[in-house]
């Protein structure tokens, strides 16, 4: 993988570009992809955004989200764009498997793949150019760095800043996680100087749910949370019936994993959703517990030190047992 700086001189020649992100994109994935798109079109590139799957309805306010192709719904058209592309930017993931059904196509097309990502342990061989910075708050911050370092700060217009700000807010837990470096605040200061209406973005992200989601949250915290004070760990599980009863859609479960961390002393939260094809895990920790290693070791996953995810093909009951066993094997790290 050649350094991302090597593409800077090439940015002035218009190319056919695809920009993509991990499946079930969150605000950082969708924000970075659309922020980059709004930047690249100003340089004359033809840009198509393709999402491997659908996304949360509370991301639908983002500028140009209507033009994003959902790979699962528009496979043939998406394949055509990927086959014709000179460059495919891969944002907010670092293993092709994170793009679900798109991974095979991504691996076989001739386009040069360009990585911009902040997760641990990238699969570098897949990418012609790129940057992997696990210390960075968000992929949106990295897209901002790319725009500034390539000499195009003047291209940061309203759509670019709204998209990039959304990802930064979301991945830093509204500026509270330790990944929030001074560079994040410098970036936001610049976006504000350029006229960013930050309150509008916060409202769009956090005050944009339907009533059922709040009632669902109440049910989950009351009936589906177990706290293990001996191991300073909480478990939250969501059954298929819960999803059905509360009409839960993509994105509605996001963020719930963080609530148990507000209990005094809790260092790790395991959160599992019984989805159709698999049991999807999220892990969050405070302080010195490595969720990335935990997710990789026990649940075919990965991510960051304090936030990671994974999955299990076993039943909900079995995967919960596996989690409890994994906690007992790690109890020395949780005291
Ligand atoms: P979440 O729990 O919000 O789905 O994900 C937490 C972090 O871990 C995110 O940065 C996400 O991209 C990453 N992540 C989630 N699931 C997986 C997975 O199955 N594999 C890998 N490598 N990373 C994941
Ligand atoms: Mn991210």
Based on CA atoms alone, the radius of gyration comes out at 20 Å
Query: Spans with pLDDT under 50 lasting ≥5 residues?
Result: none
Shape: globular
Small-molecule components bound: guanosine-5'-monophosphate, manganese (II) ion
Describe the structure.
Helix 4 crosses helix 5. By secondary structure, the protein is an alpha/beta fold. A seven-stranded parallel beta sheet has the order 1-7-6-5-2-3-4, with helices on both faces. The longest helix has 16 residues, at 27-42. Strand 9, helix 9 (240-245) and strand 10 (268-274) form a beta-alpha-beta unit. It has helices at 27-42, 75-84, 103-108, 139-149, 158-171, 182-193, 198-206, 211-223, 240-245, 291-299, 316-329; strands at residues 2-3, 16-21, 46-51, 69-70, 87-91, 112-117, 129-132, 225-228, 233-238, 268-274, 279-285, 302-303, 307-312. Guanosine-5'-monophosphate (5GP) is lined by residues 22, 95, 98, 119, 282, 301-304, 307-311.
Notable traits:
335 residues; binds guanosine-5'-monophosphate; binds manganese (II) ion
């Amino acid at each position: 993988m050649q350094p991302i700086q090597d593409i800077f001189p090439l940015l002035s020649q218009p190319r056919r570009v695809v920009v993509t992100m991990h499946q079930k994109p969150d605000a950082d994935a969708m924000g970075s992809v659309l922020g980059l798109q709004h930047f690249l079109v100003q340089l004359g590139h033809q840009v198509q955004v393709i999402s491997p799957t659908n996304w949360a309805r509370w991301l639908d306010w983002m500028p140009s989200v209507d033009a994003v192709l959902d790979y699962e719904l528009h496979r043939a058209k998406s394949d055509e764009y990927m086959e014709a592309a000179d460059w495919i930017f891969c944002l907010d993931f670092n293993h092709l498997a994170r793009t679900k059904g798109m991974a095979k196509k991504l691996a076989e097309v001739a386009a040069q793949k360009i990585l911009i990502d902040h997760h641990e342990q990238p699969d570098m061989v897949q990418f012609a150019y790129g940057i992997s910075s696990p210390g960075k708050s968000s992929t949106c911050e990295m897209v901002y760095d790319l725009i500034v370092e390539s000499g195009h700060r003047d291209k940061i217009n309203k759509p670019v800043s709204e998209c990039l700000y959304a990802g930064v807010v979301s991945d830093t837990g509204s500026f509270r996680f330790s990944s929030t470096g001074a560079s994040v605040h410098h970036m936001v200061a610049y976006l504000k100087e350029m006229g960013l209406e930050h309150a509008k973005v916060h409202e769009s992200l956090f005050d944009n749910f339907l009533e059922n989601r709040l009632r669902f949250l109440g049910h989950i915290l009351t009936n589906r949370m177990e706290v293990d004070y001996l191991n300073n760990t909480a478990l939250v599980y969501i059954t298929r019936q819960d999803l059905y009863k509360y009409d839960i859609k993509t994105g509605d479960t996001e963020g719930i994993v963080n609530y148990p961390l507000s209990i005094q002393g809790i260092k790790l939260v395991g959160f599992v959703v019984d989805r159709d094809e698999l049991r999807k895990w999220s892990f969050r920790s405070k302080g010195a517990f490595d969720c990335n290693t935990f997710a990789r070791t026990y649940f075919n996953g990965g991510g960051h030190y304090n936030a990671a995810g994974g999955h299990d093909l076993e039943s909900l009951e079995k995967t919960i047992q596996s989690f409890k066993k994994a906690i007992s094997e790690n109890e020395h790290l949780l005291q």
